[in-house]
Amino acid sequence: MLLLFQYSGTRDKRFRSYAIGATLLGFVVSGLHLLLTLSESYRYVGAYLTGLLFLPFILIYISAEKWMCLPKPIRRVSAVVWNNRLVGQTVALFMVAVIFFLSSLGWTSDEFGGVMSATSGLNCNASQLIPTTTTKSVIIFDLDKRFYSPVRGSDSRCINLDRYSRPIYIFLCVLLAMLSCSVFNLLNTTVKFCTVAGIMLITVIGLFVSPMGNALDVRDAAVDYCANHCAADLTATKWHVIAVFALFVILITAHGHRIESMLRLDFLWKMQANDEKDEMEKLQAYNKTLVLNILPAHVADHFLHIERRNEDLYSELCEDACIMFAKITNFSEFYVELEANNEGVECLRLLNEILADFDEMLSEDRFNTIEKIKTIGECYMAASGLTAATADHVQFRHVAQLADYAMAIREQLITVNEHSYNSFTLRIGLSMGPVVAGVIGAKKPQYDIWGNSVNISSRMESTGVPDKIQVTEEVFKVLEPLGYTFQARGSVQVKGKGLMTTYFLTGKSD
Fold first, then answer.
1. Could you say which of 13, 495, 497, 508 is catalytic?
2. Residue spans of alpha helices (H) in 37-123
3. pTM, whole model, 2 decimals?
4. Residues 6+ away with beta carbon under 8 Å from 184
5. Which of 192, 238, 410, 459 is flagged as catalytic?
6. Is 145 a catalytic residue?
7. Does residue 81 carry a pLDDT above 80?
8. Strand partners, 379
9. Does an H or E element contain 195, and which?
């Protein structure tokens, strides 16, 4: 039921083409009628003009949606025909009704009303009947203009008998109205059958009650007298016309069923393709999320969107990068494996919550230049200015952001201590300088940074003081003009570097 509702709501992009075809059929029907009732065409001029004006008006109404020169209310009303299948079917049926109206105008023509009086003497009587063993069918289309038979000779009343064949063509014009119904693919099989069956029913009634139908009976009698030697074995033309209409009803219904089956199958294929596309997009988004959890966004884009060979490595030289190491100094004392804490699992759960809070803070806009590198046990490593977009070589905004972040995670740990009744402290080290960023490993790739500045930052953390942020002299020179406050620590012996002058970052002035 849901699929049927969705199918009913689909937009038929070829609706305008259907309307154009139906409009052309309407003009063809009107032209044929004018030719067949030429002597009385003036009586139907008003009706023809009315019908022929309706069809182009509907066509313009359907096409108005894409005409940007028209006011929005008109285009909005036109869009309803395209987006609402029920409204579109109603418009299509109205166009079929207009074409059927045009095809039935000649039924009341007086041109054939006087045929009975003109051929009153062409009736066969019992003395004129010629027995025959075969049953002949009347010729419902063109007859020879003159009939000469051994019995009738060249009766002047039999001359131009083809004039009485015009009623047949008048009725057969209704077939074009039926054909216009088959033009609209948005009409389902049931609607098409009911429409063409209704047209046939009205036409059959017209065959028996209209003056045009009476003219067919007179024509049959005249043909029997002039061409069949009064054999009286002719099948009435009316039944031939009814048989043709019944055949058209069957063919149009079968054609409609075939078209509808193809459209429904095409709809199901499109639905399946869309579902598969959605699943593929969801899977792609999920995979990208996994990659983004492993690699920074700019690195993930490099591997996902740029054509490369498998052996190509990603590396980038970053000038003036700022690196931070932050370690929870007394976590090792807190961690014990006891039955009460599920063999240390609860300790690790608390550590995960602390580091998760640090990660969540990185999603804030004020820290948009900072990238988490990795965690090593209870040590948290991050850096800023690793891309051309995030590095500021003039005002060193990325260095200031990392300093703010260092102070922020220290305050966050104080909040954790208040809720968990612990006394964790952070020992933080900051340095800046050139580094090389890259990805190593074909499986389980790891994004990391290398360089002398990374080693110095690690030494700033290891030689630091709990609850303090120790920075190098380069960081001090960059941040001090920006309003950050420091406490000079003096010279510190750093492994592999000798004595280095360091400072403690104490805050930022308003």
1. 495
2. 45-63, 72-83, 85-103, 115-118
3. 0.54
4. 15, 18, 22, 89, 92, 95, 96
5. 459
6. no
7. no
8. 327, 376
9. helix 189-209
